[in-house]
Design a protein that fits this description.
Blueprint: H1 2-7, H2 23-28, H3 34-45, H4 60-65, H5 70-78, H6 86-109, H7 113-120
Length: 125
Amino acid sequence: MKVMELLIRHVKVNAKNFHGWTAMDIFYGQEYSPEREILGKILRRARAKSAFCDDSTTTFASYLRKPLSLIERRNNILGISGQDPTQSSRDVLLLVVTLIATSTFQAVLNPPLELWQAVTGLKNN
């Protein structure tokens, strides 16, 4: 806890992680322990806020005026949309696996004519 008290002066306590949570949000999600009470006092003294209890309202126009973050710019360049960039990869993988399974199944049901003739010993005149 001493380290926490020393570090709290040099960090942005209201910064959000990739899930949009602040340090106070993570604190609220912890189970009760004696250290949790001390941590809560340290965060409150540093004026930490919860991202979900933000009193300020953002208008649509001000949201659109905000510059894009590095991750958002990367996603725009790569053509990735949405919150989960791996979703499009999963969709492509599912499509490829489906095509492979379908073509394999079709090949078993309808083998090439030459293979069928070789197995049965029939010749086509």
